[in-house]
Amino acid sequence: EPEVTQTPSHQVTQMGQEVILRCVPISNHLYFYWYRQILGQKVEFLVSFYNNEISEKSEIFDDQFSVERPDGSNFTLKIRSTKLEDSAMYFCASRTDQETQYFGPGTRLLVL
Amino acid sequence: AQSVTQLDSQVPVFEEAPVELRCNYSSSVSVYLFWYVQYPNQGLQLLLKYLSGSTLVESINGFEAEFNKSQTSFHLRKPSVHISDTAEYFCAVAGGTSYGKLTFGQGTILTVHP
Q1: How high is the pLDDT of residue B96?
Q2: DSSP codes of every residue in A22-54
Q3: Which residues numbered 22-81 in B keep a CB inside 8 Å of some CB on A?
Q4: Which residues of B are less than 8 Å from A45 in CB distance?
């Protein structure tokens, strides 16, 4: 069964450094998402991406964040200058034109 | 704007007992409703969903949920739980935009004791 994959599974970085989180959505999917889950808190929507552009973003998704689908298979989330409060589990999700989103296993980001 | 409230942060039960995890939502538009499960150190897995049609939906591992529009609820139930059901369960809602972002509840940790 096809699945969403994410790399790396864990990432440790220093405050102020740039990180890129990578996702490979399911191949025939059209809509792509990033969510995050800070430890002990609920899963929060960051951004949705469709037709090669951002379709919706949350207040969390400020100028430090960007997304890209560089080659038709990968979907990346870049954090330009990480802060301590960016430490979280980041989930990628994708879907077809049907409503169900399928999630990847997540990348645990720790900012020191 | 939509919101989801899961009324119980933790639910401990004994094996083979029934369980209900409560979920209420608010939305000004029609919604789609989901339950996701997160096992320890794993990602989110879709458990079941309500998109339209029958208000009672079932999963392959014995869970069911009923969409109640008048009470704006989508409670998750299982008549007899197993140790392996120990996990965190998230209720989520989508609707109102064609891009379908999910709004999640706070999660309910179900712990099944032998």
Answers
A1: 66
A2: EEE--TT--EEEEEEE-TTS-EEEEEEEETTEE
A3: 32, 34, 36, 42-46, 49, 51
A4: 101-103
